[in-house]
């Protein structure tokens, strides 16, 4: 037993220093096990069978021949699967009928799960699943999404999807300069390196799921509700996650794995293939957006109108809040935003990195660039001219707003001052060259979380929190936060995360994870430090202090809390082939306290790379006749590869947020925001042609 006092452990300053990931060695040596790799005795393997029609009913499932195939243990479908509570209300406040798999014979889209074949090996399950014959009664379907498509409406929930201030038409009529433009972004897909996987088993009367998710407590609560179980009897763990980006919540693979484990009373694993991910894990809806800007001759906005349309499925309403950014970025006497959705016979879209702001910033920040061109005002000066004092729609004060500092620092480092604003002037052989810029913002929320900090008898500390490290480095960041709060070196902290038994905590989402968890971790760690300061010995079981931020979060002042940023890009456009090459990108961000510069930079560069990819490559095409994707795999769905990605630099400015108890703002989303617009604006500067439809493919450039 050791005696610990704060005097003997007074080391601080871990937050803000670059640290490699605490689990880095385990990951690069293969010792870190992912959800699809963990061995179990008696493990059975499930393979999902997905519908081949876009709308209709299942007439019959010919299970009998498949049941005779080698190793096959069960074929679950709507005729025999365990029932779930389809009216359950999950953590997000409304039921998601997408999770009611095998509960009815209706097929609402191509790729709807219609059966799970379970066998002794994964190969046997796959062979049998591919041999399973399902007969359908097919109905006509509609998967056509386009600007002005019929049936669009503004949902009532969540409230506030439309905002109106001032007389828009009068503002536009009185403006010296007007931009009225339509922008589209295509259907974009989640391509996390690790496909979704879950193993479910019953162990000592409890349901245990080992998963790849963004929030083990979230998944546990949803499964408990869905299967009408006592929440205390469900345990979900998700130690290592190979990317998530909004797609790793509760999906058909966990639900069907639980069903099969219940029926067979043995562990069952369901892993999704890359192709299945295109149907089962959600995606970014295509958008059609119209932006109208009216300004005085000097660029001051009189009128701003952002209208956004996205698609959703017929079973669940999902809104891509593309017009949300306009409510934060720019003031105008008349300020209108509206979101509409149209329900089609497609899988339900979901969150994908910077949901709303990613497509919204392409439209808004392209339109600002068009306005700068028309008004003859430098794009950065135009943004400075339209800086709001308070939230343009909310009227609330900003906790901090350092977007202009980002532009200043970015302009200095990028060499913006020498830029000739006229397009199509610069050449490098057959390449036309141009530069562009765009603003970025993402909200910085926080949600209640709990944590526990334990002083161990050997002088180390264990911190437990149901956080998820989806590849961001959250585990390491929290170790730094705990080290500072305890006043000890980070290598004495053991982080235990991603286990629903650790209690409620925010998910890794909405750029809110690290901010929410850090608050709970530092609260518990500070409490423990105070207790240790009283002296005494540490018993064998250690000394544990728990925290819960529910009250503190509830008491936060109402403010606009956001990260901000400025994106810069230089492109070269081949006039013969239409190929666009990005030559360099620079992003400068204001995102509060940066906990770990090493992993933060990597997060931001990852987001910017995705923005480049969004600008030039990514696009899922749906065949109108079948309702299915053309080429749903990484051969048919292009994203930026190493050779497409040039020098990308990300850095930040000081962004103190003194009133805030955490000071962290979150950096998960903001790297992608504005990045595609900066590239598109650079393509205009190079060629003199506006590209309002993504991606900027060679055939569109020529
Ligand atoms: Mo993020 S799209 O909230 O996982």
UniProtKB/TrEMBL annotation:
UniProt keywords (A-Z) are: Molybdenum, Oxidoreductase
Give yes or no: UniProt keyword Oxidoreductase: yes
The record's annotation in InterPro entries points to: Ald_Oxase/Xan_DH_a/b (IPR000674), Ald_Oxase/Xan_DH_a/b_sf (IPR036856), Ald_Oxase/xanthine_DH-like (IPR016208), AldOxase/xan_DH_MoCoBD1 (IPR008274), AldOxase/xan_DH_MoCoBD2 (IPR046867), AldOxase/xan_DH_Mopterin-bd_sf (IPR037165)
A Pfam match: MoCoBD_1
A molecular function (GO) term: oxidoreductase activity
Q: Which residues form the Aldehyde oxidase/xanthine dehydrogenase a/b hammerhead domain?
A: 29-140
Specify the superkingdom: Bacteria
Oxidoreductase as UniProt keyword = yes
Protein name as catalogued = Oxidoreductase
- Output the lineage of the source organism: Bacteria, Bacillati, Actinomycetota, Actinomycetes, Kitasatosporales
